[in-house]
Amino acid sequence: MSRRGRARHHAKPRWAGWGFVGPFLIVFAFALIVPIGYAIYLSLFRQQLIGGNAFVGLANYKLALHDPQFWQALRRAALFLAVQVPIMLVLALLAALALDSARLRLPSLYRLSIFLPYAVPAVVASLMWGFMYGSQFGLVARVRSFFGGHFPDPLSGSWVLAAIGNVVTWEFVGYNMLIFYSALRAVPGELYEAAEIDGAAQLAIIRWIKLPALRVAIVVAVIFSIIGSLQLFNEPNILQQLAPDTIGTNFTPNMYAYNLSFAGQEYNYSATIAIVMGILTMIIAAAVQWYGRRRAA
Amino acid sequence: MTMTGTATGPATPAEHGARAGEAVRGPLRLARRRSAARKRHSVLMNLLMTVMLLYAVLPLFWLVVNSTKTEAALFSTFGLWFGGKFALWSNIHQVFTYDNGIFARWFANTVLYVVAGAGGATLLATLAGYGMAKYDFPGKRAVFAVVLGAVAVPGTALAVPTFLLFSDLHLTNTPWAVILPSLVSPLGFYLIWLYAAEAVPNELLEAARIDGAGELRTFLVISSRLLTPGVVTVVLFTVVATWNNYFLPLIMLSSPNWYPLTVGLNDWKDQSFTAGGQVIYNLVITGSLLTVIPIMIAFLIMQRYWRSGLAAGSVKQ
To answer: Which of A190, A194, A254, B12 has the most other CB atoms within 10 Å of its CB?
Structure first.
């Protein structure tokens, strides 16, 4: 605060920004950039019985592309993505429109309650639903005996993916609802007033004002949901013990990578799977973003 | 279309901020307009939303109900209503005494990871976001590109390489293995960037400079106050993320003494399912309840801030 300082600091300091951004970038580099580089490095090598660690170029990637276990996991993730994400996002969208419609009695009660599961750890969410699904105790067992056994077992072969989808939907529908709702609240009131003066019906207002206003939020939610689906791990991993016959070690790509590393010690191949999934995620996210922009133009 | 249309082109940070500001101010104006309550309540809509509300609350209700049951009653009574002896207090007592009180240790670990991880992440993200919003410096565009690019790589996909790296550095099975990766919050960085661009006027910073205040001092005395609502939003995101963190500690930690609650609870669950393991479902359920309660209280207290922060983020991302 000296007089000298006063004279010197009139102009914006050129390097001061680095002082603020620097600490974040150092940790960022250590926690993200270095692991990415290390994963790429690992994926180019292979631990061999003779000769130890050997450079193999893209051989691990070739292996992954012809690995039926990996494809099985990927197909399951794609199926999950194609079914769970649309259901969750449509539910979230409808709930957000309902909240925004001013036709609910206690909107903040609905908003808070539906958002609440987002704060529940995935572990607890999977445990609760898992116990409820369970055949020993819980609800579904009761429901099944009530229906005389004609109700499907949620943890059996073809239903387990739907059961996991339900857990994920439960966790994130409120979060997405809030993202949409926030975007709707940001619509300037004059737009609605103008529409009402023009005598526009509610459905027309939704179609021509609300949905366009939601476009960016929808693209963001879709991208986050895609990333979440391709990374699916916590819920199936926790439910595995309840359904050991239906949730295998390669149930999702991420579970496959995890089990390759920690059960199979195949670190190089596991890193390869991680990189392949990373590239795939980036491509799909970029495509969604591109599609969203093109629609707007 | 004005608002969404502009988001299509590459926008400068200043423009981001302007739009974020609209979003922050928007709700107030709308609230006033709608308080006129010209619209009638819709029975059908209330009914459908009630169904969703029940869906959201049902598992939590199940958790509360079953925390009050004994191990035997869990299997013999109806899952969605109280039954048998009221055993909540004895369950809680058992949770805290089982295995030499390891649950309390897990609780303390979780608090440590949240305070250090979420606290540090918020601090770093706030400084960096503010730096991006209020300073021009060489390499700024490169910083933006690198952060954006690295975020696109799925975090959990990096878990295995991170584990191997930390293993080489002898960081695995220490609290650092959980805390260090938690310190990075790209979402927080981005939210503060948007928020600071709008909430901290450039004229104010100019005035401080003319008065001879240093940049850091200006930040601490003036800007940090203006940033508070945005910072609370980031605190909430990072606290929920670290409290609920499962995958990272699962792979990084091998000693139960360093487990957070999530990994510890799953361990108890696994034990109950393993043949020959002591069956402690009542402890898993009551422990889950005790894990959920603190985060929910924090969540409910701070969710008001969260909303306005999300509005800022949702307009332009």
So the answer is: A254
